[in-house]
Amino acid sequence: MRILVICGAGASSTFVAQRLRRAAHAAGIECTAFAGTEASLPIDLDSADMVLVGPHLHPTLAQIEAAAEARGTEVVLLPEDIFNDFDGTRTLALVRRLVAFADGGHV
């Protein structure tokens, strides 16, 4: 699974993506997580199966969802406290729940 994490400038999303990659690796889950920005979204969407959106981008969520829908890419608004997930395990759990839901309960 290829997961794009976006924020306004790319700094916050870089931390979330790095932590998610480490948590996935530690759990033995094959996952590619990479950071992007709202501006790079049109290009980055071509490489993503899922987009995790920083909570501060909530006002533009509808536009992000519209761009992703055209490619069949799932969009998820991250919770406000996601940047406190220092080891990435909460973010990984969120992704796993979403994947399980999309697959009818199978992770």
Beta fraction: 15-25%
Helix segment count?
Answer: 4
Determine the N-to-C terminus distance: 12 Å
User: Helix content range of the residues, please?
Assistant: 40-55%
Question: What string, H for helix and E for strand, traces the elements in order?
Answer: EHEHEHEH
User: Sheet with the most strands?
Assistant: 4 strands, parallel
- Specify Rg, calculated over alpha carbons: 13 Å
Q: How many beta strands in the DSSP annotation?
A: 4
Which spans have pLDDT < 50 for at least 5 consecutive residues? none
Strand order of the largest sheet: 2-1-3-4
Q: Briefly note the structural class of the backbone.
A: alpha/beta
Overview of the molecule:
With 107 residues, the protein is an alpha/beta fold. It is built from four helices and four strands. It has helices at 11-26, 41-44, 61-69, 89-102; strands spanning 2-7, 32-37, 50-53, 74-77. It has a four-stranded parallel sheet, sandwiched between helices. Strand 3 (50-53), helix 3 (61-69) and strand 4 form a beta-alpha-beta unit. The longest helix is centred in the first third of the chain and has 16 residues, at 11-26. It starts with a strand and ends in a 5-residue tail after the last helix.
